[in-house]
Write a structure and sequence with these properties.
Layout lengths: L2 H19 L4 H13 L1 H19 L4 H26 L5 H20 L8 H18 L3 H10 L4 H32 L4 H18 L5 H25 L2
Length: about 240
């Protein structure tokens, strides 16, 4: 097995573990490596497919009993953001798309560091979900924004970790389907898809085992660190494009 493929598979396992255990992390860990190895155009639909698989593996059906309204509103906002992102996407260069996605993530990080007197409204929550939809279709990195929205509306880190999965499943699935309709060849040209899928499932299993044992502050701080790393990676890639 080539060293670069092995490295990518290990990244997929680590990303899936983070995604399921913490609530975010898959695209942020995997995207930079995958984009370098197979190109951004091919990497984005592959990332969307793998994220859909990981989110499906991570769903805990118990969250629907107390979080159905939040999930529905998040899905509504995400899907609206995805369609808006697709409309805007053809008019933006890849550099602009990466920069805007990084800026959205940075805003999300800053929002968690500013003391708020009260939780955001349901309208604000839908708006944040819409921004995560934009990030989904542009660069397959919506997770932190979804999590920040759930934390800002008053949910604990452990609750947010579980609530985000069904929302991510719909968001990634819709974005992947729409990408497929517009440019299926970009996804079909990718090699090693079965190996990628197996690595994603394996990492998801690990994440399900460790997730319930993680303290609240570890989850929140990990989300912040992952988001900051994603900002740096996206801004750097945009800068290198000249």
């Amino acid at each position: 097995m080539p060293a670069d493929l092995l490295f990518l598979l290990l990244a997929i396992i680590a990303g899936a573990t983070l995604q399921v255990g913490v609530g975010v992390g898959f695209s942020i860990v995997v995207a930079p490596i995958m984009m370098v190895l197979i190109g951004t155009t091919t990497a984005v639909p592959v990332l969307l497919m793998l994220n859909t698989l990981v989110s499906a593996a991570a769903i805990d059906t118990k969250v629907f009993s107390g979080g159905r309204t939040l999930i529905k509103n998040a899905i509504f906002g995400c899907v609206a953001g995805i369609f808006l992102g697709l409309v805007i996407y053809p008019y933006l260069s890849e550099r602009v798309v990466l920069s805007l996605t990084a800026a959205l993530l940075l805003i999300g990080v800053v929002s968690t560091l500013i003391p708020m007197k009260s939780n955001i409204s349901l309208f604000g929550y839908r708006a944040v979900s819409g921004l995560s939809g934009l990030a989904t279709v542009w660069a397959a990195t919506p997770g932190p924004l979804m999590m920040f929205g759930l934390l800002a509306i008053g949910r604990s880190a452990q609750e947010a970790r579980r609530l985000v999965q069904p929302v991510a499943l719909i968001a990634y699935g819709v974005a992947f389907a729409l990408h497929g309709l517009t440019d299926w060849q970009a996804f079909a040209s990718a090699s090693n898809l079965p190996q990628f899928a197996l690595a994603a499932v394996f990492g998801s299993i690990i994440g399900r085992l460790i997730g319930p044992k993680l303290p609240q502050n570890i989850i929140t701080n990990t989300i912040r660190v992952i988001s900051i790393v994603a900002c740096v990676v996206l801004f750097r890639r945009a800068y290198l494009m000249g």
